[in-house]
What does this fold into?
Amino acid sequence: MKIELISEHRCFDGIQFVYKHESNITQSSMRFGLYLPPKAQEVSVPALMWLSGLTCTEENFIVKAGAQRLASQLGIAILVPDTSPRVSLVGDKENYAFGQGASFYLDATEVPWDAHYKMYSYLSQEIPALMAHFPIDINKVGVFGHSMGGHGALMVALKHPDFFKSVSAFAPIASLMQSPWGVNALQKYLGQDKTAWVDYDVARLIVMQGFKGRQILIDQGTADPYLTEQLQPTLLQEACQQAGIPLNLRMQQGYDHSYFFVATFMEDHMHFHANQLGLNVIK
It folds into this structure.
C-alpha cells in the first residue's frame, strides 16, 4: 500500500502527520491524520481512531480538539480518517448532511453512492491495514468520535469488539432511524428497505446483539441545539439498560455541539481509553 506524506509538524515532542493514499475500498484518494507520540520512536504504542462529524475533514480534530498534548503524555497514537470520499457525484454537496463530509460511516448500496461510499468497510478493513504500517500496537486500539462520528464510533465498536477494545463518544446520534439526519442519509445510501437500515442503527444494534466490550462513555451537552431532534441520548440509555450494558452518560450543563465542548472533556476521554486499553493511568 502506497502512503504519501502531505505534512508533518512537531507537536508536544511527537509528530502530527497528514497522509493520503489510494483506497481500494472507496476507489478514491483518502486522507488521514496521524499523531504519533514521542514513545512511538522506541516501541509500538496503543492507538485511538477518531471519527468526526458532519461537514468535517481530518483537519477539524487535529486543530481544535487539543488531544495531542494528552496523547503525548499517555503514549497513545491518534488516527483521524476523513469523513467521506472526496469524489464529485451529482447531489453530493446540496445538503450539508448528505454526500461529501456526510458518509455516516456506512456502506452505500444505492447508485451512484455504492461505487465510493464504503466507509464502514474502509474503517473496519483498510484502517487496520494502514495502522500496521506504523508503530502501532494493533492489539490495543480504541475508537471515539463526535456527532455523526460518535454514531460511527459506537457502530464499528459494536460490530468489531475484538479489534476496538474501547469506545466513547461526544454527542453521538443514538439512532439513525429516528434522526432526521439519519433517515435522509439512509434513504439515499441504502434505499427504502428499512431492514437494511437496522445494521447501522446503534440503539437497535445494542438491543439486538449486546456488546462484548466494557463500559461505554458518552458526554452530551445540555445546550446542544440538536439534542432533542437529532441526537436523542435517552435512546442509547434505554437500549443499554435493556441489554445490560454499562453506560456512563454524562449530561454536561450548558455545553453545546461545538469543538469547545469536545476540547473541554477530551482529557476525560483520553484517560478513559488509556485505562480501558490497559495503561492503568490514574487521573
Observations:
- The CA atoms of residues 224 and 256 lie 4 Å apart.
- The longest strand covers residues 136-146.
- The mean pLDDT is 96.
